[in-house]
Design a protein that fits this description.
The protein has about 280 residues and is an all-alpha fold. About 70% of the residues lie in helices and about 0% in strands.
């Protein structure tokens, strides 16, 4: 989610971009706490608890450092529309990762997690974009959830190296796929069917976000469409791989720089061309 906030900060007017940068810095530091490979689980859990306390402190006007102060000012400037809830939800999502042998029971739990660690970013950004919160909330959450589901499919091999299996346990069990199979990067027909089901759900969420982009003012629709096209590229790549996202080298699924450039071009066409279906929505 942090790169999306950084990208947003480049598209926004200077005053608003300052707030986006404050959000980026806060989320980035939270990421670094959760993904610190040099820290044990107990240390990470303690740091997350401290981060939770720090957030409460900055909301009470007691920031610890300059970056906390910048976020406090962002919250004050957007009082009434940018609430504390998405920040608290994101911290809860990160805490759920700070366990040994991370798993998810079903698709509903996976989508709750996806909302907490990524859908919350959309809720943080909407006030900065001066969006109609009532109309834009659901599409923004859909986009964040789609991004996280695709990130999970993209990063399955690196996550396995960390002992994390995010694919729903009930789906895996129905296909006789064990966590040990995944941790050992052993794919199968059943495993690929589970990946495809999650990819299909991510595609539905992308479509929901794409339709809802018209609720945003200014460059908002283009911003959303670029992300949709980029992440749709990962779904296309997964399909080309026959949904086998576990490779022996333990690397994430990648798309080329050319594909990323093409995604931007497709986004401009989809947003502004009178011949595009989504431009009219």
């Amino acid at each position: 989610h942090a790169p999306i906030l950084l990208f947003a900060s480049k598209l926004l007017p200077p005053a608003t971009a300052k707030d986006a940068s404050a959000l980026y810095a806060w989320c980035r530091r939270l990421d670094e706490i959760t993904d610190d490979v040099n820290a044990d689980l107990v240390t990470i859990q303690q740091r997350l608890a401290e981060w939770d306390d720090r957030f409460d402190a900055l909301c009470d006007g007691r920031p610890v450092d300059g970056m906390d102060a910048a976020l406090a000012q962002c919250l004050q400037r957007n009082e009434g529309v940018l609430t504390e809830q998405p920040f608290q939800d994101m911290i809860a999502g990160m805490k759920s990762d700070a366990v040994d042998g991370r798993t998810v029971e079903n698709i509903d739990e996976l989508e709750v997690y996806a909302y907490r660690v990524a859908g919350t970013v959309g809720l943080m950004l909407l006030p900065l974009l001066e969006a109609d919160m009532d109309r834009a909330r659901v599409p923004a959450i859909a986009l964040g959830k789609a991004i996280q589901l695709i990130n999970i499919l993209r990063d399955a091999a690196p996550d396995a190296a960390l002992g994390r299996v995010y694919l729903p346990q009930d789906m895996l069990a129905s296909e006789n796929v064990s966590n040990e199979d995944i941790l050992n990067l052993q794919s199968s027909d059943g495993y690929r069917r589970v990946v495809r089901k999650v990819a299909d759900r991510a595609g539905e969420l992308l479509a929901e976000a794409e339709i809802g982009k018209s609720t945003l003012p200014g460059l908002g629709p283009l911003f959303v469409q670029i992300i949709v096209e980029l992440y749709r590229g990962y779904l296309i790549k997964l399909k080309q791989l026959d949904y086998d996202n576990l490779n022996a080298e333990g690397e994430r699924v990648k798309i080329s720089t050319l594909q990323k450039i093409a995604a931007s071009g497709n986004a401009i066409y989809a947003t502004y061309s009178p011949f595009s279906e989504t431009s009219a929505k």
